[in-house]
Amino acid sequence: MEPVSWQQALGFAMGPGAAIIAGVLISVAVDYSARFKALAGKWKVAVFTGLCVAVPVVAQSLSIATAVGGAWGDLPTTWWPAVWSGLSAAGIGSLWHAWKPERLRNS
């Protein structure tokens, strides 16, 4: 198995990995921060959403800074895809955790 390249790692973080990385960061925050544990549920969702958007934006910034792809001033093809990737990851992650089938509620 070949090692993951820098370009592949950034592509993962700008795509499906945004929610995974945000989830890992939140799990660390839950383990080590009593303040995070004390937050109301709506604020935990806001933190998750913020991290989901921040991860692909930071990955895109690293991609530009290391000359892997994109351009600082290219909003339509560089920054919007990163923002939308983060928002979709947050939406899917939130829906996944909010969904509780009726059979599970009754058991």
Describe what you observe in this structure.
With 107 residues, this protein is an all-alpha fold. It is 78% helix and 0% strand. It is built from six helices and no strands. It has helices at 6-14, 17-32, 34-37, 41-65, 75-98, 102-106. The model has no long low-confidence stretch (mean pLDDT 84).
Supply the key terms.
107 residues; mainly alpha; 6 helices; elongated
> Beta-strand percentage?
under 5%
User: Uncertain segments of ≥5 residues (pLDDT<50)?
Assistant: none
Ends distance: 43 Å
Tell me roughly what share of residues is in helical segments: over 70%
* Main sheet properties: none
Task: List strands and helices in order, with pairings.
Layout: H1 6-14, H2 17-32, H3 34-37, H4 41-65, H5 75-98, H6 102-106
Helix pairs in contact: 1-4, 2-4, 4-5
